Amino acid sequence: MEKAINIKTSDYSQASKISKKNKYDLFIENLNFSYFGLISMTILIGSIIGGIAAAIILGNEAPIWELGLCAAVSMANNTAAIGQAPTKWVFNLFVLSIFVNILMIVMNLF
After folding, report:
1. pLDDT tens-digit profile of 93-105?
2. 72: helix, coil or strand?
3. How much is the average pLDDT of 58-67?
4. Residue 39 domain-assigned?
5. Is residue 87 in some structural domain?
6. Rounded to an integer, what distance in angstroms lies between the CA atom of residue 25 and that of residue 86?
């Protein structure tokens, strides 16, 4: 019989045997170790990228919906972090915020 893999361990040598969903769960569980560090970094980095995106959008005189989208995802990220949502929510909203804000920056630079 195949040996069961303990998801709670941080042994990445067995990571190739784990499905992608389980790798993601393992990564999220490892982020729980430094939850308040994660919160502070997502607020800091998310706000900086959101502010840069907002400045570029306003400087480019883009449609107002772009600024609204930029502000909405940045505020969702900050709200989840300040409200101490579960780690998965904080991380996923952070990734969404960074993705949307980078996309807005690129759209308005070219």
Report:
1. 999 999 999 999 9
2. helix
3. 90
4. yes
5. yes
6. 13
- Amino acid 90 reads V
- CA gap 48, 42 in Å, rounded: 10
Range of the domain at 62: 35-109
Residues 6+ positions from 78 with CB-CB distance below 8 Å: 43, 46, 47
- Is 23 inside any structural domain? no
Give the Cα separation of 110 and 101 in Å (integer).
15
Residue 26 lies in a domain: no
> For the segment 23-55, what is each residue's pLDDT rounded down to a tens digit?
877 877 877 788 888 899 999 999 999 999 999
Q: Identify residue 48 by its one-letter amino acid code.
A: I
Give me the long-range contacts of 60-69 (CB less than 8 A, separation at least 24). Answer: 60/108, 62/107, 62/108, 66/104, 66/107, 66/108, 69/100, 69/104
Question: Are the C-beta atoms of residues 89 and 55 closer than 8 Å to each other?
Answer: no
How many domains is the chain built from?
1
Tokens 């970094």, residue? 41
